[in-house]
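Before a colleague's protein record goes any further, I have to sign it off. My question to you is simply how this chain folds and whether the tokens agree. I do not need a full report, just your reasoning and any doubts. This is what I was given:
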Amino acid sequence: MHPIVNHLHETEPRWFAIHTRSKSEKFVQRMLTKKGVNTYLPLQKLMRRYTRSVRMVEKPLISCYVFVHITKAHYLPVLETENVAGFVKSSKDLRAIPEVEIEILRRITLEDGLDIEVVPGSFSAGEPVEITAGNLAGMKGRIVKTEGARKFQIELLTLGYSLLISVDGAFLGKLR
């Protein structure tokens, strides 16, 4: 049996994912911000067609997830926040999310018109690639599935999620 890992630090804030109740991500973010907790909620802009109108809506990129940048002192106040179900853990381990993965989420949500689908779990390794053009240039990942040479998947293993992104094949380069 391995010892339980806890990446919370006394003085150095680190990123963690928290699980929220369904459809309460924005509410949880507001409540945590009121408590002085640094949060990040990746949102994607989507066009929604209604009977009489078309509207642009902002929907969480990953349902039921909000990211918090905290020290050990903020752990309990975060857990005690209304609609927070708990911290996202790997087994019983509380692992920090690397800053680089949060930055990837920020870059993805800045890209307009990007077709993104979030898929639970991780996938078997495919061909390693790097995006060579656009706002996501320099991002590395593995091809999991190709649909007309346009599906590119970035594995964010710490989150336990993979992002399935449609990228033009001309923007991809092979990694050696």
Observations:
- The first strand starts at residue 14 and ends at 20.
- The mean pLDDT is 81.
- The chain is about 15% helix and 35% strand.
